[in-house]
Amino acid sequence: MPITPAANLSLFWPELPYLDRFDAAAEAGFGAVEVLFPYDMPAKETQRALLRSGLTLALINAPPPNYTGGPPGFAALPGGEARFAHDMRRVWRYVEALRPRMVHVMAGEAEGPAAAKAFAANLRHAAAEAPPGVTLMIEPLCPQVKPGYFLSDYAQAAELLAAVDAPNVALQFDSFHAQMIHGDAVAVFEEYRPLIRHVQLGDTPERGAPGSGDVDFDGLFAALRAGYDGFVSGEYFPGGPTEESLGWVSALGE
């Protein structure tokens, strides 16, 4: 599919109730959205909002947060495999209702070889259970935002994907995190392009709109146009009216 701009409704239009953000995205011209954690709302409510607005759901995160104060049960916690499998069953129910194209499987806080082994095993298990047409994503997150997060480097992510070796597990690229981790988001995208199936945009160092900071978005957009087909989602803090931060949508297509 061609490059398709998407809006992250967990961050865009923060002044609106969650379900009203779908209509705002459609009115702004988006055809797709992503929602980080849709689990606070019954799946049917989000499903109705998607149908009403005519939007495609590009991506959700998984597993659901743990609201009881216990460990989050994310995928790289050694000894947490049973908990992960249990939590993913809820994810699959939301996937069935909402039909996201991708599910970002979050690693959680862990370190060391045992964590890498647990993450790979959990990804293989989830990949075997995933519905047809759904791709599982992994994404390195910078320590400034997620200290202690297991997956914090793109080379580490590439090694993990090679170990998992599943066609429906791929790399999620975020310009904010790539720039914060490696200092050059464009170089990261170009190096790991064959593994990337989803792109998110945010500028550094404040995770603002493209053009508000240090990322070379002219270079990144040129690289995207030269060899990427898929969703490109704005995942940043608008810092004002969301509509005023959307210049990147037209710049991406130039």
From TrEMBL:
Domain of life of the native organism: Bacteria
Keyword Ribonucleoprotein among record annotations: no
Residue stretches making up the Xylose isomerase-like TIM barrel domain: 22-249
One Pfam short name: AP_endonuc_2
Keywords: Isomerase
Keyword Isomerase attached: yes
Coiled-coil stretches: none
InterPro entries according to UniProt: HyI-like, Sugar_Epim/Isomerase, Xyl_isomerase-like_sf, Xyl_isomerase-like_TIM-brl
Similarity comment: family membership: Belongs to the hyi family.
Name listed for the protein in its UniProt record: TIM barrel protein
Organism from which the protein derives: Sulfitobacter faviae
Classification lineage: Bacteria, Pseudomonadati, Pseudomonadota, Alphaproteobacteria, Rhodobacterales
